Amino acid sequence: MRALSRLRSAFTLIELLVVIAIIAILIALLVPAVQKVREAANRAQCQNHLKQIGLATHNFHDAYHFVVPAWIGDNALDPDGWAPWPVFLLPFLEQDQIFKLWDITKLCSQQVPAAYQSVVPVFQCPTRPPNQLSNNTDFIAAGGMTGDYGACFGPDADGSTSKGAIIPLAKMNKTVNGNVFLTDKFKGQVTWLRITDGTSNTLMFGEKHVEPKHLRGKNEDRSIFGSNNPSIRRMAGIEQTNAPPTIRPLRPAPDTTTAADSSFGGPHPGICNFVMCDGTVRGINLAVSVTTLTWLIMRDDGQNIREDY
Fold first, then answer.
1. From CA 141, how far away is CA 108, in angstroms rounded?
2. Which one of 21, 26, 64, 187 is at 20 to 30 Å from 75 when CA atoms are compared?
3. What CA–CA distances, in Å, run from 90 to 22, 51, 59, 118, 226?
4. Residue 277 contacts residue 58 (beta carbons within 8 Å)
5. Which positions ≥6 away from 298 have C-beta within 8 Å?
6. How many helices (H) and strands (E) does the chain have?
7. From first to last of its 309 residues, what are the pLDDT tens digits of the chain?
8. Of residues 210, 234, 226, the one with CA closest to residue 138
9. Which residues contact 190 (CB under 8 A, 6 or more apart)?
């Protein structure tokens, strides 16, 4: 009996290989599960960020009696210009200390760096890489902080006549000497009453689609605190004013299409997160038809949306 017990004092090579194989299989099974759990958490956090942006917009409307404008002033100086929507929502996102750094009578490039370089986590989707400065490609060489959400402008980039919920002021050229904005009693165009399709049927803000090679500070992913218009707004669906129209589905493919950096479509599998004008958040299926997208992003087209999106 003693001799038999001494024979089992160590693993054989085959047993060791079997154990290693079992561990490898368990890891292979566990890693995708961990990734799915992490993505589910990121998706929920992203939706929470949009929820906060939606609530901030409602609080802004309560305070000023109009929906926050996409930007104020003349947009002819893009990428420089005047304050866009992320600036005006700061006091309603518990970021009043950053808002107080802004002088909205002056261009973005004339603000103190902390006004446009401060990190505001609510403007970032956690699935994407951390926000960074848009160095050397924006309104100032040092760059401003980037972000992942864009204003729902409508199906067309028509400036102050756009058909979405978040659009610029009616008179975008109210400037003096090209660098001072006349802030006296400026008023946004859109109120909740003007969204006649219903606030629950109209998109307000959503996740921007960005080509991977342009992500974080290039092209149409520059600072959301600056006035590079494509960086702070997006379009969706079928253009209404151009022929042939540009078609913008969610997350257009391939990334080389002309709509690549002007459409919505976040990094989450299968869906793009939006906050509707009533403040509810929806993950809209990437396969939604461009017709339905067109109706969802227009505030007063009168269409009856039938598709389950």
1. 12
2. 64
3. 52, 14, 11, 11, 14
4. no
5. 154, 155, 163, 164, 197, 202, 237
6. 7, 9
7. 455 455 556 667 777 777 788 888 877 776 665 666 788 899 999 999 999 999 999 999 999 999 999 998 877 788 898 899 999 999 999 999 999 999 988 899 999 999 999 999 999 999 999 888 998 789 999 999 999 999 999 999 998 899 999 999 876 555 566 666 666 567 889 999 999 999 999 999 999 999 888 888 888 899 999 989 989 999 999 999 888 899 999 998 776 677 888 999 999 999 999 999 999 999 999 999 999 999 999 999 999 887 778
8. 226
9. 66, 67, 165, 166, 167, 299
Reported as half-sphere exposure (CB side, CA atoms, 13 A), residue 195 has a value of 26
Radius of gyration for the alpha carbons in the chain, expressed in angstroms and rounded: 24
Locate the domains of the chain by residue range. Answer: 28-297
pTM of the model: 0.86
